[in-house]
Amino acid sequence: MPTNNQVQDCGTLIVQVAQVTADVLILLFQVLYAFILSIVTLVVRKQPKSVRGEIVLITGAGHGIGKELAFLYASQGATVVIWDINEKNGTQTVKEIEQLGHPKAHFFLCDVSNRENVLTVAKDVQQKVGDVTILINNAGIMPTHPLLEHSKDEIQRIMDINVMAHFWTLEAFLPVMKKHNYGHIVSLSSTAGIFGIPNLVPYCCSKYAVRGLMEALYQECRADKKNEIKFTSIYPYMVDTGLCKKPIIKFQNLMPLVNPKEAAAEIMDAQRRDLNEITIPRYIFYAHNLCRMLPLKAQLFIFDFVGVGLESDLS
Ligand SMILES: NC(=O)c1ccc[n+]([C@@H]2O[C@H](COP(=O)([O-])OP(=O)(O)OC[C@H]3O[C@@H](n4cnc5c(N)ncnc54)[C@H](O)[C@@H]3O)[C@@H](O)[C@H]2O)c1
């Protein structure tokens, strides 16, 4: 004959099992709902939101992808704030945007790796232009050679520009976005931020760091159920800006360098559709996720077969 205590314990256990079963069922429905929603949004694409009237700050917009982004945002009616360490290229970008008939472009000389410089120039931007509503952390460098041929200063510089700068710009602009509960952070990682590539050890490390930063920050802000600040991480394959000095591409026709204009269009589209992350081209996202499920040896066979990489820029 069970005692009263045993009957009570058994009752508690049944309640707990029922509770967990109900929670798991709810979770399964939520996962199914998310899955169906993502398929629907693949077919019925969300309308891109307007950027007219937004203040878009793009770091490293004196050249390459950043410059193309500046053109695109200006052409869509946004005020564009160009930051670059290269004054000549930065002012030239503004000049070219103005020549296209878009008067709302501003250049500020800024070394994004320098926290004091970032915070000072950010105040200047706030006073002269206004509150930044879209921040695009784009500036980056990519020295390409074997790890032991990187000097300590070079490794430090890669981390300062490619990673630490994101902390400084976030320190400068995220508080105002939080205050208004409005804004969008876009960060340039790389496909080198989702798989390791020879000759790019510090660079890959910096781009994996950007991925971690963005994912963790997104989760942190999401914890506030009322949060409306959006996050978009970008993982481009090699883009034809000159950053990749000696690309190796086995299948030239299948995997050519991406045109910088196309890369910028993809980035702006992802931002305007509030996409959380994209690879450029987009199929790399699915190919990569599928590959990661395979045994390491199989992944390595595929990596060697695809045959994409970079030769040392010292050779
Ligand atoms: N080009 C590619 O193949 C490729 C691929 C994947 C990811 N990315 C990433 O995209 C971003 C842009 O690349 P890109 O190819 O346009 O490069 P780019 O070299 O053409 O332009 C980078 C710009 O950043 C500026 N810059 C560098 N250091 C700076 C600093 N300390 N402060 C302010 N500005 C600074 C440069 O002056 C330059 O104008 C980078 O983060 C890069 O890592 C590029």
Automatic annotation (TrEMBL):
Keyword Oxidoreductase appears in the UniProt entry:
yes
Q: Where in the cell does this protein reside?
A: Membrane
What's in the keyword line of the UniProt record? Lipid metabolism, Membrane, NADP, Oxidoreductase, Transmembrane, Transmembrane helix
Give an example GO cellular component term for this record.
Answer: lipid droplet
Q: Does the keyword Disulfide bond apply?
A: no
Question: Cross-referenced Gene3D superfamilies, in alphabetical order?
Answer: NAD(P)-binding Rossmann-like Domain (3.40.50.720)
Q: Where does the sequence pass through the membrane?
A: 24-44
The record's annotation in InterPro entries points to: NAD(P)-bd_dom_sf, SDR_fam
- Membrane topology recorded in Swiss-Prot or TrEMBL: Multi-pass membrane protein
Chief place of localization: membrane
Identify its protein family: Belongs to the short-chain dehydrogenases/reductases (SDR) family.
Q: Which PANTHER family match?
A: PKSB, RETINOL DEHYDROGENASE 10
Function text: Catalyzes the reduction of all-trans-retinal to all-trans-retinol in the presence of NADPH.
Protein name, as recorded: Short-chain dehydrogenase/reductase 3
